[in-house]
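SAMPLE LOG
Freezer: B-3
Tube label: C17
Construct: single chain, 91 aa
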Amino acid sequence: MQRIKQAQVACLERTLAGMDWLARRRGGIVLPAHLLTGTADEDAAFFFLQRKGYVVVARRWASGDLQGDVDLIAWQGGDAVFHRGQDAYAA
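STRUCTURE (predicted):
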């Protein structure tokens, strides 16, 4: 059963990468470089957690009352993961 789940995650990862490539090639949504990096990092964390068996329950979650957001919220058994990615770059 674990092999099937791993294959599903790998297939989804390749499909999304292909769709991103196609959108870039067709001149789709153009984002600043720092947002592209952040999105790519978030996707990598998402697929890492999925491969480890975590259930991702939210992406880019934000509270209406507070500033900021949480990139990923996932759980496995009794463990919860709150992921907030940060990029450091020189301006």
